[in-house]
Amino acid sequence: MARSPVLNVMVQAVMKAGRAMRRDFGEVEQLQVSAKGPGDFVTAADRKAEETLFAELSRVRPGYGFVMEERGEVAGTDPDHRWIVDPLDGTTNFLHGIPMFAISVGLERAGQLVAGVVFNPITDELYTAERGGGAYLNDRRLRVAARRDLVDAVIACGVPHLGRPAHDLFREELGRIQGRVSGIRRFGAASLDLAYVASGRLDGFWERDLKSWDLAAGLLLVREAGGFVTDAAGGDAMLARGSVVCGNEAIHGQLLKLVKG
Ligand code: IPD
Ligand code: CA
Ligand code: CA
Ligand code: CA
């Protein structure tokens, strides 16, 4: 597997932030938390990882802009390139000592996602994708699962937490989907849900009310692993609408129908 220079830059930055996050996992001082809203926390680890990613990525590609969960948007001098960064996806898991979280970095060029990295520093699983170049888990090329019928499928979802809208909508979707699939999972890190679809561990995933940084890298992983991805209305405005439905072509089609109702 040959990685482009820019993907190497992303991998180096993400691994550096990930090594520190792994050391800090479970350490009391990293658990200093503040709440951004009901059910929405930020820890010292989120901020530290964001600092590292910002410093590393801007050192190697000084002109690129950023959209980052904790800092927000940082304009660059290069209007064509933008990093989309979630420094710690799965903060609630991190806080509870559950080893299911990741660092997610996507790169947009002229409005198109061209590279993505999702890294779980606890399992040492590094997911990478480049537009047209396939998706990988460490050195292994990925392909979405082959199951074609929802009755055989394991599907992940997101459950709106306290302070989020769309609780009723979620209950309706779950009501339609739950009796028709072989299993439903809620892992709590959207970037890993997408990476798991790309690697064939999960057959599909749907969620609403996500942000561009939850989705960017993972969307590219699923596409490059041969999967189908749309927003919850069946369009391709996933980043703008913050919703996603994905799987292989057959599972995506069946799941989307049930999500739409
Ligand atoms: C959260 C996770 C979670 C999803 C939430 C996100 P964070 O991201 O991706 O799975 O359900 O909507 O906010 O805040 O842990 O980076
Ligand atoms: Ca957050
Ligand atoms: Ca996130
Ligand atoms: Ca986050």
Secondary-structure class: alpha+beta
Would you list the SSEs in sequence order as H and E?
A: HEEHEEEHEEEEEEHEHEHEHEH
Low-confidence stretches: none
**Overall domain count:** 2
Strand segment tally: 15
Name the beta content range.
Answer: 25-35%
Basic shape:
globular
> Biggest sheet: strands side by side, in what order?
4-3-5-6-7-8-9-10
Distance, first to last CA: 41 Å
- Give the full name of the CATH homologous superfamily of the largest domain: Fructose-1,6-Bisphosphatase, subunit A, domain 1
The CATH topology annotation of the largest domain reads as Fructose-1,6-Bisphosphatase, Chain A, domain 1
The residue fraction in helices comes out at 25-40%
User: How large is the count of helical segments?
Assistant: 8
Averaging pLDDT over every residue, what do you get? 96
CATH architecture identity of the largest domain: 2-Layer Sandwich
Which small compounds were modeled alongside the protein? Answer: D-MYO-inositol-1-phosphate, calcium ion
Largest sheet: 8 strands, mixed
**What Rg, in angstroms, do the CA atoms define?**
17 Å
For the record, the CATH class of the largest domain is Alpha Beta
